[in-house]
Write the structure tokens for this entry.
Amino acid sequence: MRSLSFENQQRLLIGLRYALLILIAMIFIFPIVFMVVSSLKPDMQLLRDSGSLRAFLPVGDISLDNYADAFERVPMLQFFFNSVFTTVVSVAAALWLNSMAAFSFAFLQWRGKALVLSLIIATFIVPFEVIAIPLLMVVNSLPWLGPGGIEIGWLNSYHVQIIPFIADSLGIFLFYQYFRDLPDELVEAARIDGASIWQIYTRIIMPIAGPILATVAILKFLGMWNAYIWPLMTIRSEELRPIMVGLQYFFQLNTAWGEIMAYLSVVTIPVLLFYLALQRAFIESIATSGIKG
Amino acid sequence: MAKRKFGISFVQVVNHTRCKMKKALSVVLFVVLLLSMSGIANAQTELSLWYHGAGNETERSILLGIIDDFNMAQSEYTVVLEEFPQESYNSSIVAAALAGDLPDIIDVDGPVMPGWAWSGYMQPLNLSEGALDDFLPGAIGEWHGEVYSVGLWDAAVSIYARRSVLEAHDIRIPTLDDPWSGDEFDAILEQLQASGDYEYALDLGMAWTGEWYPYAFSPFLQSFGGDMIDRSTYLTAEGVLNGEAGVAFGEWWQSLFERGLAPGTSQDGADRETGFIDGKYALQWNGNWAGINTLAAVGDDLLFLPAPDFGSGSTIGAASWQFGISSSSMNAEGANAFIEHAIQDEYLAAFSDGIGLIPATAGAAALSEHYSEGGALEVYFGLSEAQALVRPVTPGYATVALVFEKALADIANGADVQDTLDAAVDEIDQDIEDNMGYGFGDM
């Protein structure tokens, strides 16, 4: 039996590796292909095709009708704006606030710091569903300055969708972990040069925090973009609803599957774009996590 | 860690900002004072109405028409609509109740109403004498002897069949007065399955989980003589769910799947939607809401047949979405006036024409396109009138429904019938005990 040469063995290994990678990639890509292809088909055809390979092929009666119908059924642009607005504001505020909190834990000396940090990390284990009702009670009794003066209760507003989610224990922890591993010399040199605490934060630490900013931004973005339970509990007006709640509009007595797929295709685009924009920094953050400075 | 020793205190930062904050606070208070003085009194009393139909443009336009008519017909109240998606509507109501923020008028699914009434979310209606005289029983929501809600329509289920199929197999077409008996129905299923023309003789809709199970399948149990709970006391399911009749139903139910007469719990949702139309299934157990679409696909050959009678009469489920008034409403008089306005026959007929459901009165049925004499869905009004039985009127129904669904799925998958029903009874009774009888009896 003739054995393979080293070169051929390498080629075979590379071929096998690519085959495996393609297989894994297909597992992730196929649902998206199914979603996009199904969004182009009428309901009956979509359902009939779902049991065969045709489900992944743009064949049969193909059109953009589902998109037109979905836009007609749901005020999609309004929902889209609401989600973009609450998400962007939340992400920006969360990056700012959580990084500052982590900066404090990592670089400032104050009494009880270790205890507070432990408490914040301990909140990881509390799922949102557990605090949802107490949180509802809290926001319902908080004051807010509205057009009619001071109002009690935050329900049915943009700020009730944003403010409770700015401070985020995971974000603080991730920033803290990243800051803690930075070389001491960076901060000490800045202090010797007379930099203030604010200058150290803004000019020394944050400019080199790109990877962790991307990671926290992506995680926060996903959490806010997919917000569902909280808006259900707190939002009454259609004008303030986020895009994920809009998905429920399609589940009528006769479910509009094609429109659901069209809606989901539109909803997924910003998530993909946001991830692709920050992909490099995100991967870098994961690749370097745990490496000591 | 031994680093971060450059020791900057927060105290300096806080002192520095405290002075600035005092000035900012003064400005804010001044602005608040100005804004508070600018309020404009509203002459009309606003009635808030929450509705579950977001995403259904037809329902929305009909409801807005009713609201506009009401708002123009009088000058004391203005009804303002907020729409919610049906799938999450109940969660929004419960959250609003917790926050003390319920609207004046709510709509509520029939079997959910007792739970909301018991929880204090709703108050009884105060409609004019005789306002509900002509209503289908399933469209009236009663709790402890008082009417809490009223529906503009009802829903019903029937057996979908093709006339050509029944005639080809020499099968009698049943009527409301003379439905198939249990044995006759069973023999028909065997006959259709044996013909080899169909993948399954009967599609029960096992792919539709959730409320479909108790709504659509408990009538079979009731026709056997059992029930999900003892309706004479509402304090136990012992003897009715797991008694002789209950076990007979369970054994028949299990045999449907063992004999391969019906697809089981692994049924593909797509097959449920298209299987009967495509000819995979000979018969289908389905609701009237699917009638128009199926008629469009199958044509005049389609028949809507009454439920079989397993010995205690033919029964179908009843009660759909209904209007009620929240307990926190300070404008109950206006809310009652709106509901009484909304239940006029012309509106019931408009809803029926728009969304295909059964008008709640005979007068409205006569005005409707599908349920008037000779209409494609006329048979459903008779079914609702003669066979409808509302699901158990108890706040414990939420638990009963979940337990019943699980028991039926387990039995369909081969679980021991008696053991499964006994376990279901234990779970239902425990929940009733945990909730001190849900307001029934002394527990």
Notes: The longest strand of chain A covers residues 143-146. The CA atoms of residues 39 and 262 of chain A lie 4 Å apart.
